[in-house]
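Write out a record, fold above all:
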Amino acid sequence: MRIIGSVQGVFFRARAKQVADELGIKGWIRNAEDGSVEIHAEGTEDALKKFEQWCHRGPPGAKVERVEVQEVPEEGCEGFEVRT
C-alpha cells in the first residue's frame, strides 16, 4: 500500500502500528523518499479492509490524498514493525 499526501511528520507510522496491532495485522511501514508512506500488510481479508479504511483517514494532522493498493506476495512477517 502507498499512502500519498501530507502523511510524514504527523505520527502516521506510529498510529498505523497501533491500529495494525489491534487488528492482528503483520507487516511493516516506512516513510518513502517521495514523501509518501509505504505499507506491507498481511492479515485476514476483514482486518486488511478495516486497516485500509483507517489509512484513508490516517491520524489527526494527516491529509491523505490517495491510497494505492497492490497485492504482493506474503513475506511471513512475525509482527508489525516501523521501519526507517
